[in-house]
Each structure stands twice: as C-alpha cells, then as structure tokens.
Design a protein that fits this description.
The complex is a heterotetramer, with 2 copies of chain A (145 residues) and 2 copies of chain B (421 residues).
Chain A lengths: L8 H8 L12 E6 L6 E9 L2 E10 L2 H14 L4 H15 L9 H4 L12 H23 L1
Antiparallel strand pairs in A: 1-2, 2-3
Helix pairs in contact in A: 1-2, 2-5, 3-5
Chain B lengths: L9 H5 L8 E2 L3 E2 L1 E2 L10 H14 L9 H21 L6 E4 L2 H11 L16 E5 L8 H10 L2 E5 L12 H4 L4 E7 L11 H10 L3 E5 L11 H4 L3 E5 L10 E5 L1 H4 L12 E4 L4 E3 L13 H17 L1 H20 L4 E4 L10 E6 L4 H10 L2 E2 L1 E3 L4 H6 L5 E5 L6 H20 L1
Helix pairs in contact in B: 2-10, 3-10, 4-5, 11-14
Classes of the chains: A alpha+beta (145), B alpha/beta (421).
The complex binds pyridoxal-5'-phosphate (2 copies).
One pyridoxal-5'-phosphate sits at the interface of chains B and C.
C-alpha cells in the first residue's frame, strides 16, 4: 500500500514510544513552535555545552509524523557537535524537499531516512520539519548565549 | 447503502461536475467531503466565466463601446441574481473578493468614518462575537477593538456545541454596537438561534453581522426574515468561482458606511488633496471588478436555485443523520457538535480514539476520501474543546449515501491500519 | 496599411483570442483599442482557469487530500511564475484581487502597525505622489495622509505630459517616507524616469511604490534593476483573469509590513483576544485565495513571455508612432502626452476639435472601434490640462497597423458626421 | 445609420445652440451635478414662485447628449407647475430606462422624445439624465425654502 511509504514502522514506533519526551529540568534554551495550519505544537529544550548538543528534550501534541520526527531528531542529535547536528538537519531538510526523488543518506540520517516517503505528501512536510525547525531555533539561541 | 428518501438525484447532479470524471490515488473514486472548505463547480459555472472572457470581456462602467455595454450588463445582471438569491434589493449587493474581505471591509469601516459617523466605534463600546467564529469573523473584530479601545466579548459554546445564551442580556448590553456571528459553524455544523440574538441586539441598537459562508450555499436565505443588518458569503463555497464574495447590507446602513478600498469607480469627485464617494454599491467596489467571477457566481446561484435549496438542505441532513448514526456505532469516535440533526447543517467534526486527525485524514485520502483536518480556522473553538484538531466531513448536493458508507468504512480501515502497526 | 517591420505576427496572435471571432454593431470587425482598461484573453488563459476548476479544485494549504495537494501546487506554482516574470523571489509575491487592493494594502499598512513599526507614518512625515496618478494610486495616499496627519505633495506634469523634476530635491525631502508613482501613465503614455526618483527617494530613506499596471503587461520588468521597493499590477490588463492582482515587495520590507486583511491562513496563532501572524506572503493572503485566477495569471504571463516582451513593446511603439503621425495630420486633433515615442508606451489620449470625447467614442463604436473616453480615473490630470475628458486608444500585442488606419478613418468619419449635422 | 437614432438632429441643434445657458442673476437654488464616470458637469439654477417653475438656467461642460438634454429640459419646464414638471421628469426617466422599447409620449415630452434612442445605449443614459437630476434636486430644495 502506497500509504506505507509514509507510515514506516519506525515512525509509528517513535510515535507510540517517543524518546526524550518530557521537558528536562536542566538549564537550556526552550522554544515553542506551532504548525498554524493544523494546530500541532512542539516545545523543544536544548542545552549546548562547548559546542556539543548535551541534551534535547521536548513535549508536544500532534500527528504521528510530527511527533515521531521530533522524537527521532532528539535522539539523533544528542551528543553531536553543533556542526554535525546541522549537517543532519540540512540533509533532512533537503530530503523533505525532494518530492519523492531521494531516499536520503542513511549514513547521515540513520533511521530518519524513514521519512523519505513524507516528501511525496507536500502537506506533511511541515509536520516532519516542525521539531527540526524548533531544534534549529533553540540551538542557535543556545550558542548565542 | 443508498438513501432512497432523498429529494435529490445525485447521480444526475454529479454528471454536471467535471471533477467527478477523474479519480484520485491510483484510480480510486473521488469521495469529496470537503465542501465546507470549498465546493466543486458545475460545468455551467465554469462555462459562464469562460464565456464572459471569450465573448463579452471589457471593463465595466467605463467604456463607450459595445463590449463595455455587454460587460456592464453581465456584471450588473449578476448583481441582480445575487439580490434575488438573498431576497434583497440590487443596490444592497456589494461584490468583494471573498467573505474574508467583506468582514474586513466592515470592521475597517467601523473605525474609518469621522467622529460623527454613526458607525464610528470608540472606547467604551462593545463588540460581541462567539467562541465558534471562523478566524475571518473574529480577528477583524479583535483588530477593530484594538484600534478603537472597544471591548471584545463573546458567547461561549456549550459542550454540545451550542451557543450558551444564558447571559445574553449581560453580553449584549447597552454599550454593544456590533454583534458578529456565524449562521452555521464551519466546525460543529451548529445553526445558531438568530431570532433571539437579533432581537436583543436591535433592542440595544447594535447591528448584527452574519457570516453566512456555511449557510447561504445550503439553505434558502431571506435577509428580511433573518432580520440581520449585514450578511456575507463566499462564491467558492456555493458552486461559484474563487475570487468572489458577497456583502449584503441594509441600504439605509450602506448609505452612511464609509468606504474601504479607494480607487477608480468608487468616487464622485477627485482633486489632488481630496475625494468624495459614489453611492453604494459603487462606493465599495474600487477598481476594475472581478467581473467574470461575478458572472460565474450568478450562474452558480441559478444552479442552486434550479435544484432547490430546500431539497439541498434536506438531502444534506439525511447524509448527516446517516453519518452521525454510523459514528455513534464506532466506540472510539467522538463527535464535536450537535448529535441530532435539529438546527444543524451537513458538517460533522469528530475524532477517532488516539488516531491524530491528520493521520486519519491521510488514511482516508489513500482511500480516495477527501476530508479536512485541523482547527478549521476556528482555533479558539478547538482549544475550548481541549483538542488540537478534528477530522471534518462536510456534505453538499453531489454527495450521496454510498459516500457516507465509504467514509465509515474508511474510519474502520484507519483503526485497523494504525492498530496493526 | 500594414507595418511590415513589426516583430510580431499579429494575424497568428489574434487566432489565440476567441473574442476576435465575433463582430460588433451589426457585423463590424472588432477593433479593440481599450487594452489600457482591460486586455482580452487568449484561449490558453481561459482554459487554464477552467481546467483548475475541472480537475484540481480544492482549498489550498488546508486539506490533507490529493486535490488539496494539487491545488496548492498549482497556486504556489503560479506564485513562482509571477516571481520569474518580475525577476523576484517567490516569497516576495503576494496575490491580491487587483492593483487597487495592492495599493490600499500598502496604504493601510503604513498606519496600522504599532508606533515602533518602521512603516508607521505620522504627522510631519511626507508622502509624494504625482499629478498623473490613477485614482488607485492617489486616493489611498490621500486617505493615509488624512488618517495620520502626514503631508501629501506631488510632482507636477508639464504641458508635454512629463513629470516636472525641477523641484525633486525639495519635493522629496528628508521628511519623505513614501514616493508612490506610476511607471507609465494610463492617460498620457508617458514612461516616468525612475532612476532619478528612486535615487533621491532612497537618499532620504523613503520607500518607492511603483504602479506598474500599464508597464508590466507590456515590457520586461526586473524589480532589482528598477530599484523600487514595492510594485503592483493587475492580472486583467496582462491577458490574465479578472479578480487577481500582484503585489511585490522586497522581502526585508515585507518582513515588517503589518497585515491588512485578517482571517484564515494568515495567522500564526489565535486566541479569542489576540492573534499573531504568519510570515509573508501568507500574512497578506487571508482566506481561501483566488486560486483559479492565480493559475490563469501564470498562464497569461507565460503567454507574454513566449511571445517576448521586447517584441511586444517594439510592436506597440510602431503602432503608436503610426497613430501619432496620423493625428498630426488631423488639424483639429490635439494629443495629450509626449508626441514622440521616446520614453513612451502605446497609450494615446487626444481630443478632436469641439467633438466631445464621449461623442467621438460613440461614433467610433458605431464603426466597431472600441476606445475609452473620459478622465480615465486620473481626474486631477485631465483637470490640469483644462479639459473634462479625452479619447484614449491603447494598444496591445493583438492590434495591428490596419486598426490604426481604421481609427484614423473613424476620426475623419466623426468629423464629417458631427459637422454635417 | 443606427447612430442617427442617438444623435437626432434636434439634439445636435440644442448642443450647438443651447437654450437658457448662462446662470441667471436672479435668486434661485443652484446645484452642481457631476457624472463621475466621464467628468461631465452641469450647474442648474432654479427659481420656483407659488409652485410654478419661474426660471431655469444652467451652465456646464459635457457631451452632446448631456448638454442638449439640460438645454431642452430647461426650456420644457420653465413656466410649468412643479407637479407638471415632475410628470415630464418621470416620463423622461421612464423613457431612458426603456432599453429602446419605448418611443416616449410626445404629448408629455414634446421634443424630448428625440432622446428615445439614448435608451439603447446604456452608457449614455446617465448623460441624458444629468440635467434632469440636477433640476429635480434644485426644485425640491427650492420648494423646501
Ligand atoms: C495606472 C493604473 N493604476 C491602477 C489601476 C487600477 O487597476 P485595477 O482597476 O485593476 O485595480 C489602473 C487601471 O485601471 C491603471 O491604469
Ligand atoms: C464560517 C466561515 N466564515 C468565513 C470563511 C472565510 O471564507 P473565505 O476564505 O472564502 O473568505 C469561511 C471559510 O473558510 C467559513 O467557513
């Protein structure tokens, strides 16, 4: 079924058992992003130490794509240098804009290649990017501190 | 299951709509249940617009040549059609680009007259809306309140999705100048009790602005009977083209209403420093208007009138009844809005267990079923219900009982699909 | 007389325009010289709009279904086409209903931000326009001046129909915040010297608003090269549908520009009392947009690009030259506007002796020739010239030399007709 | 020629040799009317004595139809009772709205039946009515005095 390309098992797993959900008590930069067209919301809290993403936690409500994406993102970038994290972010963004022509680089994206199918559904790209954009926003602010 | 008691022959009607000749998602039949967002168009409407361009296109009111005469006749003829449709007089019909523009036109007009203008809103005045308004009938009034220092208050919505009228006399008090509300909720399907609200509003001297976006396309409107002061709807939800809306206002009110958009054709006299205004409706239609769209809209209203609005409402209610009954049988399904068909139109919002509406909508789409998901531009309302989104099915004259069945089957399929994984 | 040096094959072009298959006034060939008011439409544009309705119609940005995806792609694709046409970036393109709406959007935005907003106009500020503005680019600024207490001043027009730039440094002084002017006069045909005006405006920190209604349909536009800050034109004068306009603004300006129409799709977040805004262009496109018209406009711009705007301008200038020469031979004829084709477009206004323009237009109409008469929505300009009205012929790519001859013969006929009586 | 139905000889005669043109020095009510779509203007001055239209003079610029119409109007109503004048006005207005289906009643309209052809040209109806509307406006005001 075509729909399976969108709802890969790993996405639904993250949706059902999200990682790093629940905002940490540790200090960090917290941002709140909203998808105005559907009402989905995500709060992402990021702490950066010496150029390394020390902790990413989040909370939110939304569809499987948006929640799974933020869950996977938080797991992927934690422990990476900001530069490396941004490489993944850029690769993920490019994948989303590929209109189904790219499968994504698993070397860079790891499990997040599962979102490749989303790029064929233009209305869902924003869902998949919601958490990433929040991370970008928060990490830029965190570095500026 | 086909509902044999419907007064409409949908099979015949569907033949008039070219879009139903296509399929979606690899050959699936298109089950279009998103008419609340925008309706599909019959070939007659598409042709009316095209034919204007092909044979009569010219700038109205401006040229001394035959094409200009014909274009003017077509455009002003469309105004007459709309007037007939609303049982209004022709000079009370203003063409805008959309209901959104109409409502903004009004909200701006309430703060752009001079201090003596009867519409001028000021600090201490009150504007009343409801918690179930579409953003288009909420934010313009928020902004008006901010600009003027007026107070914005609202009717709350009960858990059943009705307006809570228990505090009507306190809400609509003697400071109240404007009561703006929707005729039918685009989320809940609720039809609001106008009589009581209009009576109270007029008692305190307020004007009533009715958002008829979800009613005028589906039921017969008689502005005199409704008793409201301004009314608007969009063409594209009423089988008409995009890019056209209607604003109706009582002529004695339009007479004093300040203009909104300034430019050609809305003037009486112009010098470098000043200008005076033409009478309504011209005063509110600056520039070369959306002529082809007005012609298309007239054709759409004619189509609706020929089918019969009573029949259309009755047909939609049967489908609504069928869907509500079907949803009642799905344990996980929760309906937002009235669960009976009393004072209700053919728009049904619901959630299904933990399946996010967006995911449900996506699954339905994979089955060819087009619904809408989200807050439906009535975000404060979805928040009031403590949710971020619903899935919404909305009916029109071309839908039939088999499509309700398809939707119900689709919901079951989605439950299966997302459970298994 | 046919002009053999034209780069366009008008006979071939005319076949694309269905309206030229009809006749007017009892079988007369239609000689349409009123494109300055509105242009005719090629079949490809009419079909593009119709085809959107027939096959892809749905509300953009809103649905989670295939039709909504297709509609969004069509609408956003149209935005890309417009961006390419103006050599702008895609997020700088705002769809409005018309140039009139675009200019009002801007004028309102300059008084609706908070006091810290960079666009907020106040007492002591200055707005500069010109004496040759269309009402759409004059009255919104008059009203802005009235609302804010700002001062409205203007470039005068010389007897030859050019802007008098002799006082440019006094007119555009350090108080100046906005310079709003037309690229090409819709009455005189004059093309204004932007370079000098833009340079001076930017020197004092003012933004330049360009009304490109009469230029964008006829000559290649590059917003970067023009150096202006905002630009607008209407679709219907550029072979496109009615009900669609374009507003372009520099992205760094649009970022801070307050919204104009409030409603669905232009928001970021909404509560009962407040709302925040989406980024541009969404912030300026409230409600279900004029999707089909945007698609039609994209098709029109594609048509123009395929023919070639350089060729179109060159062709129109040949016709203009021919008409100016012909009018020079008619003793009673007086042209308003440049008598050479330098910095001039294909719009020619004139009077013929004591024949009132309205009567002349009526006579020409009886010969199948469609021109416009009156003040052309630039009343202060006609008054400046001490007249009430002119007759105006305006050319487009589908006109040819034989039509100029027909017009000249028509003028002679009118002189005969009204003299005899 | 079809156009001749619009430009009747009597209309062109009035246009070339207008009657009652030039505003009277006598007291009266003066109104200024404009046709905003073309810029034509007319000033009409009316004096009413004991319910009788004593004097109508005017000035203006405009097309043959508008100028001839005000000229003929001023000649027709002068000396009539206000009621009789209004009968003509109503008849003339009805004629203008007849879309070419009426020839006008010469008993009431006299020479003004020449304007019957105007009703076939919708854009010109306003021209023909300009002076009449000004008269209506002025005479109502004059009676109110
Ligand atoms: C120079 C100019 N500006 C503005 C306008 C207004 O355009 P629209 O009526 O399409 O809004 C026109 C055309 O009428 C025009 O010629
Ligand atoms: C109740 C209601 N009001 C207003 C609107 C706004 O209509 P439009 O987007 O056509 O301006 C809509 C539709 O979106 C609606 O459903």
């Amino acid at each position: 079924m075509e729909l399976d390309s969108l709802y890969q098992q790993v996405i639904l797993d993250h949706y059902k058992r999200p990682l790093h959900k629940g905002l940490s008590k540790n200090s960090g930069v917290q941002v709140h992003h909203i998808n105005p067209s559907c009402g989905d919301e995500v709060t992402v809290k990021v702490s950066v130490n010496d150029g390394v993403v020390a902790e990413v936690t989040w909370d939110g409500v939304g569809c499987s794509i948006s929640q799974a994406s933020v869950s996977m993102m938080s797991d992927l970038v934690t422990g990476l240098g900001i530069k490396e994290a941004n490489v993944i972010l850029d690769e993920f963004t490019a994948l989303m804009q590929s209109k189904g022509t790219s499968a994504g680089d698993p070397e860079i994206l790891d499990d997040a290649v599962a979102f490749a199918g989303v790029s064929k559904y233009p209305a869902r790209i924003k869902c998949a990017l919601l958490g990433w954009m929040a991370f970008k926003d928060a990490s830029v602010q965190a570095q500026a501190q | 299951m086909s509902n044999s008691s419907s007064p409409l022959d949908t099979a015949v009607i569907r033949r008039d709509f070219p879009i139903f000749t296509r399929t979606v998602r690899d050959g699936k039949k298109l089950v279009y249940l998103d008419s609340g967002a925008t309706s599909q168009k019959p070939e007659s409407v598409i042709s009316a617009e095209a034919n204007f361009y092909r044979m009569h296109n010219a700038a109205v009111h401006r040229g001394a040549h035959q094409l200009a005469e014909e274009a003017t006749e077509a455009y002003e003829g469309a105004r007459e059609s709309v007037a007939k449709f609303l049982r209004a007089t022709v000079d009370e019909i203003i063409f805008t680009k959309s209901a959104t523009e109409s409502l903004n036109l009004l909200a701006y007009a309430f703060s752009s007259g001079d201090s003596l203008n009867r519409f001028q809103i000021k600090r201490g005045d009150r504007i009343v809306v409801t918690e179930m308004e579409h953003h288009a009938n909420l934010i313009p009034w928020q902004q008006l309140a901010k600009r003027t220092g007026a107070e914005l208050v609202w009717f709350e919505v009960t858990p059943e999705g009705r307006l809570d009228l228990s505090k009507i006399s306190e809400l609509i008090n003697s400071d109240t100048r404007i009561v703006a509300l929707t005729h039918q909720s685009n989320v809940l399907g609720t039809i609001n009790p106008l009589e009581q609200i209009v009576a109270r509003a007029h008692e305190v001297g307020a004007v009533v602005v009715l958002d008829a976006c979800q009613s005028a396309p589906h039921k017969a409107i008689d502005v005199e009977k409704l008793g409201v002061d301004f009314l608007t709807f969009s063409g594209h939800k009423a089988l008409g083209p995009t890019g056209i809306g209607v604003l109706w206002g009582r002529s004695e009110l339009l007479e004093d209403l300040p203009p909104f958009l300034f430019g050609g054709s809305m003037i009486e006299n112009v010098s470098m420093l000043d200008a005076t205004w033409a009478p309504s409706p011209r005063r509110f239609e600056a520039g070369v208007p959306n002529m082809a769209q007005a012609v298309g809209l007239a054709s759409a209203l004619e189509y609706l009138t020929n089918v019969g609005l009573e029949k259309i409402s009755a047909h939609e209610l049967l489908l609504t009844e069928q869907l509500l009954a079907g949803l009642a049988n799905i344990e996980e399904a929760k309906v937002f809005g009235p669960e009976s068909t009393v004072d209700r139109g053919g728009t049904v919002s619901f959630t299904v267990g933990a399946i996010h509406p967006h995911d449900l909508g996506q699954y339905l789409d994979s089955q060819g079923i087009a619904v809408r998901t989200g807050h439906h531009c009535a975000w404060p309302l979805t928040r009031k219900f403590g949710i971020t989104a619903t899935t919404r099915a909305s009916f029109y004259l071309y839908n039939d009982a088999s499509e309700v069945d398809a939707l119900l089957a689709g919901i079951a399929g989605a439950q299966e699909y997302f459970k298994d994984k």
